[in-house]
């Protein structure tokens, strides 16, 4: 372990652990917000619990808050770290660095600053992209990797331009989000329409109104947050080139894939089998794109079994 980072002021505001809406009872007895300056970017993370380190990385267009329903149970066995990646929530919003190589390095720097050289990780959506990059680029850091609900650009086969209507409904935002300027002009002032549509159409079980409002308000409150939300997609040319190199080096660590039966299904496991040798696939019935919020009990059960060897190996006799 390394020494603790220089403390920064405790983050506040609606995006912090103290101010987020609809948290489980007793949440703030275990979890607190903190800011960490990695030397590259200032990152906000919500941390708490005892045991080996577990990194939970959210996807687009969410924040650390996506994990709130799983965090209390996980904190009984792990020291949970749920960050806002660069460009998200209360973290810094630089103009660049949104390729997955940089995002993965951010997470390694964050965990190092918090005293964790080696850890397990769960990544959802864009967090799955980053999880793959972290496992490939920093194999000495990860013990186990669980990923959920994404295809990985540059690893997954690209769908045809004129694919099925179902594929278009799921993927049209990729092209839209990559636009250089027009998307911000179209979405600004209409964040509820655009991001609300994403949540409404990709969930099999509707997310609570207060959660959707929290995500939308976070994006609408700051033009830099809106710009950063598209930056992950604008960096895809760089990410794709990186992944084409990464897939020449197969992953050997244990990988769990989680997918909603009503959304990506077998596609998540099939994606990771293109890159990893030890893949266990788990499909969650009645679930769409947001398993941590739609079916938290089922996701927690799958993670508990998968992470048990990591937890147990860290217990000193």
Automatic annotation (TrEMBL):
InterPro entries: AB_hydrolase_1, AB_hydrolase_fold, AB_hydrolase_sf, Epox_hydrolase-like
Source organism, top-level taxon: Bacteria
UniProt keywords, alphabetically: Hydrolase
A single BP term in Gene Ontology: acylglycerol catabolic process
Entry's Gene Ontology molecular function annotations: monoacylglycerol lipase activity
Annotated SUPFAM superfamilies: alpha/beta-Hydrolases (SSF53474)
Ranges for region Disordered: 1-29
GO CC annotation terms, alphabetical: membrane
Keyword Hydrolase: yes
UniProt feature, compositional bias: Pro residues: 1-12
Family annotation (Pfam families): Abhydrolase_1 (PF00561)
Sequence ranges assigned to domain AB hydrolase-1 in this UniProt record: 52-291
Protein name, per record: Hydrolase
Record organism: Streptomyces antimycoticus
Lineage: Bacteria, Bacillati, Actinomycetota, Actinomycetes, Kitasatosporales
């Amino acid at each position: 372990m390394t020494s603790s980072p220089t403390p920064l002021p405790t983050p506040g505001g609606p995006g912090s652990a103290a101010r987020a809406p609809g948290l489980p009872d007793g949440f703030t007895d275990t979890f607190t917000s903190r800011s960490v300056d990695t030397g590259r970017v200032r990152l906000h993370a919500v941390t708490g619990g005892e045991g080996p380190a577990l990194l939970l990385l959210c996807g687009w267009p969410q924040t650390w808050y996506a994990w709130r329903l799983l965090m209390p149970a996980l904190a009984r066995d792990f020291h949970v770290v749920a960050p806002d990646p660069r460009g998200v929530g209360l973290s810094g919003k630089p103009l660049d660095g949104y390729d997955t190589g940089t995002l993965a390095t951010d997470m390694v720097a964050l965990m190092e600053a918090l005293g964790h050289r080696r850890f397990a990780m769960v990544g959802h959506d864009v967090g799955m992209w980053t999880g793959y990059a972290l496992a490939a680029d920093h194999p000495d850091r990860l013990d186990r990797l669980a990923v959920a609900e994404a295809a990985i650009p540059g690893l997954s086969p690209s769908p045809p331009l004129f694919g099925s209507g179902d594929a278009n409904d799921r993927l049209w935002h990729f092209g839209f989000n990559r636009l250089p300027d027009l998307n911000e002009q179209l979405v600004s002032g209409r964040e509820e329409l655009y991001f609300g549509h994403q949540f409404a159409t990709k969930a099999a079980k509707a997310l609570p109104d207060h959660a959707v409002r929290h995500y939308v308000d976070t994006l609408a409150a700051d033009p830099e947050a809106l710009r950063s939300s598209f930056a992950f997609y604008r960096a895809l040319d760089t990410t794709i080139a990186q992944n084409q190199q990464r897939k020449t080096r197969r992953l050997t660590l244990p990988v769990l894939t989680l997918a909603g039966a009503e959304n990506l299904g077998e596609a998540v496991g099939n994606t990771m089998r293109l890159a990893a040798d030890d893949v266990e696939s788990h499909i969650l019935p009645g679930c769409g794109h947001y398993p941590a919020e739609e079916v938290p009990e089922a996701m927690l059960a799958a993670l508990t079994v998968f992470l048990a060897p990591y937890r147990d190996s860290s217990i000193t006799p």
